[in-house]
From TrEMBL:
It comes from Cognatiyoonia koreensis. The lineage of its organism: Bacteria, Pseudomonadati, Pseudomonadota, Alphaproteobacteria, Rhodobacterales. The keyword Oxidoreductase applies. InterPro entries: DAO_C, DAO_C_sf, FAD-dep_OxRdtase, FAD/NAD-bd_sf, G3P_DH_FAD-dep. Gene3D superfamilies: 6.10.250.1890, Alpha-glycerophosphate oxidase, cap domain, D-Amino Acid Oxidase, subunit A, domain 2, FAD/NAD(P)-binding domain. NCBIfam families: PRK12266.1, PRK13369.1. Belongs to the FAD-dependent glycerol-3-phosphate dehydrogenase family. Its EC number is 1.1.5.3. This is Glycerol-3-phosphate dehydrogenase. Keywords: FAD, Flavoprotein, Oxidoreductase. Transmembrane segments: none annotated.
Length: 515
């Protein structure tokens, strides 16, 4: 039986759109359905980092860390507009401790009981040596030791911190990563359907019959293969949509973040270790703010929208206040966000200890169903390649191709961001540095497609505030699947931090009229 699609994907988070882009580029015809907006759940609620996971070394997850470290620079080269190198400062103090259940902690407790769970400096340096060398580095600089007193990075910290280690990772605009993968998949021929819920998927006549309910009503499409990239809803898709059995499952872990007023005047981030063994980051955010997170809390009810609870906010404030000289108060918090991470359930005792690696489960009893459990944003491209490796013998298609191909707007070298911003200002003199920087950091070289032949800001149409114009809004609606103001101000951008409720309401009204 001829099918509408070679591969149909349920879920518009990073794993789903990553698979869609990869599969479409191999010559397969792909369809994807997302019941809400792209990146509306886990994939817009990360700590915004491409990183190897330094703390995973304590759990002996060397394979996962190595894969992530290798992938870090591959991704950086493919998306220099939405990802960039970042240096992390890890202050050291003798009171720093392991979380009690880590393999490293147990090993040291056995052989060095006099340490009483403390993290010795030599062990941190060993971990950073491994972090520098497990995956190889061509772009990012390695670790160095810092003397904090009198330094710019030491100034915001309490005086007891004299020494720190500085290492490299990368920032990533997570929601834009999802949108650009979806856009690239569609430019290559995929059909991306947002606000479209998959109601049922049934094997019949050698293909999947998939009932979808979207803006155009209910209909049934067929596909030779099906990928379940439901994230937190992966088990629900298996049991209630595809009506299959699976032995694997996910552990739902809530990660919450707070955004505060700007806490320090430099572009480096902090990696803080707590006396409870956990870690948090404090990261420069959207120029005028600081991002602090994350927590690890069990989240057992998917019907309950994840929010940063008061307890979690207090925890993050107390944690950060162990390090910063100037006390951060609740009144300094300007925004919070929270997401549910669908970690593969490996039976770990705590949410923190649960693996961040992914598991791909293929059911080929008839037309294939591949279920994705877990994963992390840094390894999404490799996950997609491995999905296709499992499906290729059944569905066919060409070989891997995504490693050296930039996402839309990312066709320039990592080192040329400042040059690209300057060139945009030269072409459009009415742009301020902040405005041009925001456009390049969001759209890269595609910024010129939004600005067109505009000679002044007036040519871009209605001004909604914070440099958001009607021309950009139309682009986001026509090219990036935005339907509501929330899609734009909290996912396609973070302009919600700068726009008033009245401005956001005006944007919503404009979009409703324009749709």
């Amino acid at each position: 039986m001829n099918a509408d699609f070679d591969l149909f994907i349920i879920g518009g988070g990073i794993n789903g759109v990553g698979v869609a882009r990869d599969a479409q580029g191999r010559g397969l015809q792909v369809g994807l359905a997302e019941m809400n907006d792209l990146a509306s759940a886990t994939s817009s609620a990360s700590t915004k980092l491409f990183h190897g996971g330094l703390r995973y070394l304590e759990f002996f997850e060397f394979g996962l860390v190595r894969k992530a470290l290798i992938e870090r620079e591959v991704l950086l080269r493919a998306m220099p507009h939405i990802s960039w190198p970042m240096r992390f400062v890890l202050p050291y103090h003798k009171d720093m401790r392991f979380e009690g259940d880590t393999p490293t902690s147990k090993l040291l407790t056995t052989f060095m009981p006099w340490m009483k769970g403390r993290r010795p400096a030599w062990l941190i340096r060993l971990g950073l040596f491994l972090y520098d060398n497990l995956g190889g580095r061509k772009i990012l600089p390695g670790t160095r030791t810092l003397h904090l007193p009198g330094s710019k990075v030491g100034k915001p910290l309490k005086g007891k911190f004299k020494k720190a280690y500085e290492y490299s990772d990368c920032w990533i605009e997570d929601s834009r990563l999802v949108v650009l993968n979806a856009r690239d998949a569609e430019l290559r021929g995929a059909k991306i359907m947002t606000r479209t819920k998959v109601k049922e998927a049934t094997r019949k006549d050698g293909v999947w019959h998939i009932t979808i309910d979207g803006p155009d009503g209910m209909k049934t499409v067929t596909s030779r293969g099906l990928v379940n990239a439901g994230g937190p809803w992966v088990e629900d898709v298996i049991r209630n949509v595809a009506r299959q059995n699976a032995s694997e499952g996910v552990r739902l872990v809530r990660g919450s973040h707070i955004v505060t007023k700007k806490l320090f005047d430099h572009d480096k981030s902090y990696f803080f270790q707590g006396e409870d063994g956990r870690i948090i980051f404090a990261i420069p955010y959207e120029t005028d703010f600081t991002l602090i997170g994350t927590t690890d809390a069990e989240h057992n009810n998917l019907a309950e929208r994840p929010v940063a609870t008061q307890e979690e906010q207090d925890y993050l404030l107390a944690f950060a206040n162990q390090y910063f000289e100037q006390t951060i108060h609740k009144s300094d918090i300007v925004w919070t966000y929270s997401g549910v991470r669908p970690l593969y359930d490996d039976g770990a005792k705590s949410a923190t200890a649960a693996t961040r690696d992914y598991v791909l489960s293929l059911d080929d009893n008839g037309p294939p169903l591949l279920n994705i459990f877990g994963g992390k944003i840094t390894t999404y491209r490799k996950l997609a390649e491995n999905v296709m490796k499992k499906l290729e013998p059944i569905l066919g298609g060409q070989g891997p191709w995504t490693a050296e191909v930039p996402l839309p707007g990312g066709d320039f070298p990592v080192s040329q961001v400042s040059k690209i911003i300057a060139e945009l200002q030269d072409k459009y003199p009415f742009l301020s540095v902040c405005w041009a920087t925001r456009l390049i950091r969001a759209y890269g070289t595609d910024a010129t497609l939004i600005l067109g032949d505009a000679k002044s800001a007036v040519d871009l149409g209605e001004d909604f505030g914070a440099t958001l114009t009607a021309a950009e809004v139309r682009w986001l609606m026509n090219e990036e699947y935005a339907v509501t103001a929330e899609d734009i101000v909290w996912r396609r951008s973070k302009l919600g931090l700068r726009l008033s409720s009245d401005q956001i309401a005006a944007l919503d009204a404009f979009m409703a009229k324009a749709s």
